[in-house]
Amino acid sequence: MNDNDLFEDMEPGETRIMPVEEYERLQKARRQKIKLEKEQEEFRLRAEKAEFKRLLPIRNNLPYDDNIANEICERISAGELLINMTNEPHMPTIRRTNQWLRDNPEFNQLYNQSIADRLSIFEEQVVQIADDVSRDYKEVQTTKGAKRVLDPEVIARAKLRVDVRFRHLKAGKPTKWGESSTLKVQTDDELDPSNFTHEELERQIADIERKSRIVKPV
């Protein structure tokens, strides 16, 4: 067991009695470890940046390659973003990829189909993100002990992720997701959402969200 293990295997709230000299020695070793890890991470980032800069001219002039073009389309179909892929060393830059699309009609057609396929992934992710409540709460310490409360940052981030996907869906599938798309199904029930206009639905949703933020006393 090394010095840091004495801290890392301690349970939250656990205390151990040790001589001051031993405690200071362990704290010093821990600080040295953190410093070393930070230096190693900085070195890794500098090396990556240098390699990225070295490869940039090559990637900016990379000849068209069917295998890479197919990989781009397959990964887009699976939900990935081109801007992330083109940061990888074996990939062309965004500028070069756009040139490939202009110069290769077959790649362009397959790419556009992949964009359409990705919309199906986004449709499922809208539901998946909304249903995932595993990180909606965080634990905070109060005078009465630990308490689980809603984490507004996590919820705001989830809403942003859903909104971004909605924007893609409205642009890519306007008939289904566009503002003008409405269901022609109505009932005589005044409270039925299918009878609401878009503006009325927006007001209803805003009102529900406002009420959900009210914490009722136990």
Fold and architecture overview:
This protein is mainly alpha-helical. Among the domains are: 1-9 and 17-59; 61-124, Arc Repressor Mutant, subunit A, CATH 1.10.10.60; 132-165, no CATH class. The chain contains 9 helices and 2 strands, in the order ααααααββααα. The protein has a two-stranded antiparallel ribbon. The radius of gyration is 27 Å and the shape is flat. 4% of the residues are buried.
Summarize the structure.
This protein has helices at residues 5-8, 20-60, 66-77, 82-85, 94-103, 105-131, 152-172, 174-177, 198-212; strands at residues 137-142, 145-150.
> How are the strands of the biggest sheet laid out side by side?
1-2
Shape: flat
Q: What structural class do you assign from the helix and strand content?
A: mainly alpha
The pLDDT mean sits at 78
Based on the structure given, which CATH architecture of the domain at 61-124 is correct? Orthogonal Bundle
Number of helices: 9
Largest sheet report: 2 strands, antiparallel
In CATH, the homologous superfamily of the domain at 61-124 goes by the name Homeodomain-like
Our measurement of the CA-to-CA distance between the termini, rounded to an integer number of angstroms, reads 47 Å
* Number of E-type strands: 2
SSE ordering: HHHHHHEEHHH
The CATH topology name of the domain at 61-124 reads Arc Repressor Mutant, subunit A
Q: Taking Cα atoms only, what radius of gyration do you get, to the nearest Å?
A: 27 Å
Uncertain runs: 181-186, 214-218
Strand content: 5-15%
CATH class of the domain at 61-124 equals Mainly Alpha
Helix content: 55-70%
